[in-house]
Amino acid sequence: MSGGVDSAAAAALMLDRGYDCVGVTMKLIASGGSKCCSLEDINDARLAAWKLRIPHYVLNYTEDFKRFVVEPFIAAYERGETPNPCIECNRHLKFRRLIRRARELEAELLVTGHYARIERPAGSGTAGPGQERPAGRWLLRKGRDPKKDQSYVLYMLGQEELAHTRFPLGEMTKAEVRELALKRGLANAGKRESQDICFVPGGDYGTFMETYTGRHYAPGDITDEGGRILGRHRGLVRYTLGQRRGLGIARGEPVYVEAKHRETNTLVVGPEQSLYSKNLTVEGVNLIACQSIPQPLRLGVKTRYLQREQWAQVEQTGPSAVHIEFEEPQRAITPGQAAVFYDGDIVVGGGTILHTSRMPPNAL
Fold first, then answer.
1. What's 32's domain CATH number?
2. CB 81 within 8 A of CB 105
């Protein structure tokens, strides 16, 4: 229970279905400036649990959060990538540490307020921890509300985790969730959502990283594709591929971040057509709907959270690697982000973008 309306509504729905529930809140940030784990959020979660008449506990995972989320986030940015820390938080904290704790408490299921759906294998019932399940695979599907679907950040879930997790909001819209919360008298029914990364106050990644690490990210040259110096950047970690605003360059046409060269501390900018590519390599792949991809498949692929799926050929090239070739060029595919592939509303799998091949402008 994060203190928001979604997790509180999820608890209410599970109570309505006859489950005995225990509310838990993860404390991930020690103190100061964070948009999560604040005293207000913890109190909101505790108040919701009190209203629902269930026990509530706060679990301290601050060291795990630093190890598995914050420090890899910083390392990725320093490599020139653009990571998604919500995926790593889901992978290591919500659906690994919490399921382990649930088992220690002899709880049957972990329930969260994510907007996604889990489909049981044919003929299966609810299996308790350690129990065998019938043959078949658990499936992860998109949430019914396309504006709230969160399946993209859940692609890392394995069969064991899916078997012991429930998403009761998956069939609901956000408006329906708020209406439910109002009817149940939950004080956080109208609480606003934060769109920023929870541990980066104000969304200023560069300042956060310098404060956290004590390192200074030196300014350097901004050049065009031919190497001509156009200006100065404020540290490569403060820029992402495809970025247009905040470059401080006055030119006759818009330019966008095309590349970041760590070895020379240079930021390369170019016209928008220089951002497009069709081919990418994905590593750390987790497959949900199948054990492997024995032959290339035509699937819908997302390379950003808010993107609509685009048709592509997905070919498995190693135990945890795939090659993806889009049918149409895609803009600003970014190493460090996730590529998630879908068959309709079913998540086939996903992984981390390692490399992408830019297309020559005249090929568009």
1. 3.40.50.620
2. no
pLDDT tens by residue, 286-332: 999 999 999 999 999 999 998 999 999 999 999 999 999 999 999 99
Asked if residue 189 is part of any domain, the answer here is no
Catalytic site includes residue 36 = no
Range of the structural domain that residue 179 is part of: 5-119+136-183
> Which one from 37, 86, 198, 290 is the annotated catalytic residue?
198
158 and 286 fall within a common domain: no
Distance of alpha carbon 41 from alpha carbon 23, whole angstroms: 13
Task: Give the tens place of pLDDT for each residue, 245-297.
Answer: 999 888 778 999 999 999 999 999 999 999 999 999 999 999 999 999 999 99
Selected catalytic residue, list 21, 36, 37, 89? 89
Per the annotation, the verdict on 89 as an active-site residue is yes
pTM of the model: 0.90
Q: How far, in Å, CA of 82 to CA of 336, rounded? A: 5
Could you give the C-alpha distances from 158 to 34, 62, 90, 155, 318, in angstroms and in order? 30, 24, 12, 8, 18
**Mean pLDDT over each residue of the chain, to the nearest integer:** 90
Query: Which tokens belong to 133?
Result: 């399940």
